[in-house]
Amino acid sequence: MMAVCGLSEGAVFKVGDSAGWTHIGHVDYKTWAATKNFHVGDTFFFQYNNQFHNVVRVTHKNFNACNATAPYATLTSGNDSFTVKRGGHFYFICSFPGHCEAGQRVDIRVPRNSPLTPIPVPSPSPNLLPSPTPSLSPSPSLSPSPSPSASDVPAPPHNGASYHVPSCKLWLMSMVILAFCAYRFRLLGMFCFSDQLRIF
Ligand SMILES: [Cu+2]
Predict the structure, then answer these.
(1) Ligand 1 centroid vs 77 CA: distance in angstroms?
(2) Per residue in 91-101, is it b (16+ CB within 10 Å) or e — as a string?
(3) How far apart are CA 55 and CA 77, in angstroms?
(4) Residue 13 alpha carbon to ligand 1 centre in Å
(5) What are the TM regions of this chain, as residue ranges (predicted)?
(6) DSSP notation for 97-160
(7) Cα of 38 to ligand 1 centre, how many Å?
(8) Order of strands across the sheet that contains 105-110
(9) pLDDT tens string 53-105
(10) By the 8 A CB rule, do 84 and 90 touch?
């Protein structure tokens, strides 16, 4: 409505907002200016019918006296822009008879230490560059993760147990085989004995 933001440059303020630059309707330009935050680099746009108005930049003294005889500048196009390049007060009046007295004047105060808001914006981006370093931290976090796998080393006890079982089975099997062999040999011995008996 009144302030159109230019991101890389200053904001653009339409003086008087929708009312524009006029002496009709009792636009309170003092209140208009008081409700805005101006910065160096901002642009002020004066829109008016140039058949009935103009924009004259004057001194503080001439602003108070509605005196346009020694202006800094006079703008008459009806669509005039004024960009503020430093802090301080900027006084504008309309020089048409009776208009300034009727309230068509504005005191635009721009704080001296008010750099354009966009200026700090680029500095954060360098701050974003260091962020990659935190991304490096994850890699150390990854190195600890392998260590838990090392903690899995206690698994050997598991393996030992698994070894125990086959050894038991082996022992049992060997015992069975031994018993079987002993039985077989005994049978053989009996046969031999019986043969010997038969022989005898
Ligand atoms: Cu006027």
Answers:
(1) 13
(2) bbbbbbeebbe
(3) 9
(4) 19
(5) none
(6) TTTTTTT-EEEEEE-TT---TTTTTTTHHHHHTTTHHHHHTHHHHHTTTHHHHHHTTTHHHHHH
(7) 24
(8) 73-75, 55-58, 88-93, 105-110
(9) 999 999 999 999 999 999 999 999 999 999 999 999 999 999 999 999 999 99
(10) yes
User: In the prediction, which pLDDT does 23 show?
Assistant: 96
Task: Determine the topology of domain 3-110 in CATH.
Answer: Immunoglobulin-like (2.60.40)
Kind of pairing, strands 12-14 and 43-47? parallel
Find the 117 Cα to ligand 1 centroid distance in Å: 33
Closest CA to 103 of 30, 18, 34: 30
| DSSP secondary structure code for residue 5 in this structure | P
Span from the CA of 59 to the centroid of ligand 1 (angstroms): 18
- Residues within 5 Å of ion ligand 1 by Cβ? 23, 53, 94, 96, 99, 104
Cα–Cα distance between 99 and 21 in angstroms, integer?
11
Q: Is the backbone of residue 187 left (phi > 0), alpha (psi -120 to 50) or beta?
A: alpha
Which tokens go with 121?
A: 């914006």
Q: How many helices (H) does the chain have, and how many strands (E)?
A: 7, 8
Summarised one tens digit per residue, pLDDT across range 92-151 is 999 999 999 999 999 999 999 766 555 444 444 444 444 444 444 444 444 444 444 443
